[in-house]
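Good morning,

Attaching, inline, the backbone tokens for the sequence recovery test we're adding to the shared suite. The designed sequence is right after.
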């Protein structure tokens, strides 16, 4: 009976980690798209000198988008390692 409970908990943990991996992957893609769009807007501002006033703001948004993307990807890779090697981590503290 205890074995069945442990297997059910392992399946639930695996499913929960998989959902989080998908979530962080989607957030990384969204952050990359936001950062890329801000970079495009920043580059297009050079053709319209009137918009250069806002270029520091777009630089900040671009950097924040790419940093968020890197952070989400790093968290996702940590969750992948945790999900795939959970039994080894649990037995070898």
């Amino acid at each position: 009976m205890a074995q069945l409970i442990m297997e059910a908990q392992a399946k639930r943990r695996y499913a929960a980690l998989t959902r989080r991996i998908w979530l962080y992957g989607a957030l990384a893609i969204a952050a990359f798209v936001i950062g890329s769009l801000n970079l495009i807007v920043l580059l297009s501002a050079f053709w319209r000198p009137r918009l250069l006033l806002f270029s520091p703001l777009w630089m900040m948004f671009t950097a924040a988008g790419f940093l968020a993307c890197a952070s989400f990807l790093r968290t996702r890779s940590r969750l992948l390692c945790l999900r795939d090697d959970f039994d080894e981590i649990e037995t070898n503290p």
